[in-house]
Fold this protein.
Amino acid sequence: MKRSTHSRKEASHERIVEAAARAIRRSGYGGTGVADIMKAAGLTHGGFYAHFASREAMLAEAADRAGAEAVATSARIAAGAPPQRALESLLRAYLSKEHLEGTERGCPVAALGSEMPRQAPEVRRAATRRIKEMIDLVGRQSPKWGEPGAHERALVTVAVMVGALSLARAVDDPRLSDALREAALSHLISVLND
């Protein structure tokens, strides 16, 4: 009986974190309420504290999950391409129209970057860990990985990717949104091929 109860609690916890990971990307940290998350997970608000010590603890797990999903998606895209095209494939997918429109399942840094400095330390720590993983993933896909300056190129690449997607989502002009993504992609690919 204990095992069944424990696995039900784990499954409930998993549903809460999954709902919260989608919600923070969709509505931001401030727009993510405990009651709404619990409802989206199919649970009552009263059960929240059986899973988390605080709202911040839930947000930290949600940030970690959202970041892990983004890194895993990018890693799958890179792994599915020929090695010499892995970074280009990753860049094209990241700066795609689908990613632009898929905020709820996309990169949490592009969705939440401006909110992160105001979050609790555990939320920022989780986000930082996943940002470092993304930088490492991008760097390892570069044909110049291991050469002097490779890490700095990876830092700039991730900064341009995230910045371009954030700006493309921010503007209300679809042509400007497309131009931002396309210019960033064109620039990054030209740098990659230098």
The mean pLDDT is 93.
